[in-house]
Amino acid sequence: PAEVEYILNSGEEAVGERYQRGGGNLAKAVGEMCGLSNATGSDVKAFCCGPLHALMMAGALVGSGVFDKVAVVGGCSLAKLGMKFQGHLLHDYPILEDVLAAVAVLVGKDDGVSPVLRLDSIGRHSIGAGSSQQAVFEKLVSEPLARLGLGFQDVDKYATELQNPEVTEPAGSGDVARRNYQVIGALAVLNQEITRSDIPSFIQTHGMPGFSPTQGHIASGIPFLGHALDRVKTGTMQRVMFLARGSLFLGRMTQMSDGLSFLIEKNPNERS
C-alpha cells in the first residue's frame, strides 16, 4: 500500500456539504480507508467516460515520471442501484441490478512484462465534432487507428459500453453493446476493409456480449480490462481498444456528449 503515490477516483458520486455540494476528493477518503498512507489524490468526473479519462491521466502521470504508481478507482452510487427496475417489473422480471459495482486499476511503470497503455493512441470526442453516433465513433475509433496506421481488424477486441442486454432490453434500451459494434462494423465498411455482409462476422470476432450492470461509468469498457490484460499477457490477443461515451447533457449544462478511447497492447519489450 505504501507504494501507491496518487489515487484518481472516477466514480459518479459527489460529496460535500451545504456550501460545497460537489467539492469531492473521495479519492483521498478511499485511500485513507485502504491504508495508502503515502498517497494523495483527486476526483475525475466525466459521467460514463470517467474511468477512461482517469486511466489516460494515470498513464500520463506515470509516463512523465511524476509518480511511479497511480491507482484508478471507481465505485457505484446508491442512486444507480436497481436503476432499470421499472422496466423489469413491467415485464415480470426480477430486479436484476441488485449489485453496486466497483473497479480498481493499478497503473505503474513499464516492467517489461505487463501490457502497455499507448498514450499515442488516445481518441477524443472534441467539442466541435458533433454528437451523432457516426461522429463520435469516427473520433474514437477511425481517427486513432488511421493515425497509427492500423486497420479495424488489427484490433482483437473493442471494449465499449458493455451493458448486459438482459437488463437493458426489458427497460426498452435494446442491446447497447451490439448496437455499438454495428456502428464500428459500418465504419469498417466505409473504410473499405470489409463488406456490408461481413458485419455479423466482424461483430462476432471483434465484439462481445454485454455483461455489465448498467451503472454508468462501470459499464463503459472497463469490465473487460482484467480479461484483456490476461489475454494480452498470454498472447491470445495482441491489441484491445477501450472506448467510452459520456452523456454530458444529463447535467443540463450542455447538449454535448463525450467520448474517449485508447489501446492496450502487448508489451514490445516483453522478455521471453
Descriptive overview:
With 272 residues, the protein is an alpha/beta fold. Helices cover 30% and strands 18% of the residues. The protein is built from eight helices and eight strands; from the N terminus they run E-H-E-H-E-H-E-E-H-E-H-H-H-H-E-E. The chain has helices spanning 26-33, 50-63, 85-90, 133-148, 165-168, 176-190, 199-206, 225-234; strands spanning 6-9, 40-43, 69-75, 102-108, 116-124, 157-159, 239-246, 258-265. The strands form two sheets. The chain has a four-stranded mixed sheet with strand order 2-1-3-4, sandwiched between helices. Strands 5-8-7-6 form a four-stranded mixed sheet, sandwiched between helices. Helix 1 (26-33) links the parallel strand 1 (6-9) and strand 2 (40-43). Helix 4 crosses helix 6. The longest helix is centred in the middle third of the chain and has 16 residues, at 133-148. The chain is globular, with a radius of gyration of 19 Å. The two termini are 29 Å apart. The mean pLDDT is 93.
